[in-house]
Amino acid sequence: MNNKPVYLTAEGLEKLKSELQHLVTVERPRVAARIHDAKMDGDITENAEYEDAKQEQSFLEGRIATLESQLKNAEVIAHSNGDKVGIGSTVVIRGADGEDRFTIVGSAEAAPREGRISNESPVGAALMGSRKGDKVIVHAPAGSVTYMVVSVG
């Protein structure tokens, strides 16, 4: 079992708890009823509905196990208003393509399209510990890119 810490904001912790609660109390009984109904249709060896329901159950149980593990290893990070980039910091960076704004979060909360990047991503890892005015070099698969840290909040 993986005991690696899962860094979360307080908001992220609540989202994971809420998702787990929903899966256990709503989705698990719904899938169990679906399996039961499919079994009632007779021979399960050639029953597509039964097979589909069992697959859904497998996916659901996997997600529940993942959430339980993440919550077990959760470390809530309180955002400090320091001038150093850390998990929970909102950072504005400037590169050749203009400015971008990111909030640094743990990998369980990352949603790049929503402006939340993981502290383990190439950009997030490069920004960790930097301060306003620092230049950071991001080593990405497409090559290295240099950014200027405009602000840390």
Features:
alpha/beta, Helix Hairpins, Chitinase A, domain 3, five-stranded mixed sheet, two-stranded parallel ribbon
Describe the structure.
The chain has helices at 10-40, 48-72, 122-127, and strands at 6-8, 74-76, 90-95, 98-105, 116-118, 135-140, 143-152. With 153 residues, it is α/β, with parallel strands linked by helices. Strands 5-4-3-7-6 form a 5-stranded mixed β-sheet. Strands 1-2 form a two-stranded parallel sheet. Helix 1 packs antiparallel against helix 2. The longest helix is centred in the first third of the chain and has 31 residues, at 10-40.
Helix fraction, binned, reads: 40-55%
* Average pLDDT, all residues: 90
Structural class: alpha/beta
Question: Strands of the largest sheet, in order across it?
Answer: 5-4-3-7-6
Q: Any idea what the CATH architecture of the largest domain is?
A: Orthogonal Bundle
Q: So how many helices? A: 3
The major pleated sheet works out as: 5 strands, mixed
Uncertain parts: none
The H/E string reads EHHEEEEHEE
Estimate nothing, just give the exact number of structural domains: 2
Number of strands: 7
CATH fold field value of the largest domain: Helix Hairpins
CATH superfamily of the largest domain: Transcription elongation factor, GreA/GreB, N-terminal domain
Distance between the termini: 35 Å
Radius of gyration: 21 Å
Query: What is the CATH top level name of the largest domain?
Result: Mainly Alpha
Shape: elongated
Strand content: 25-35%
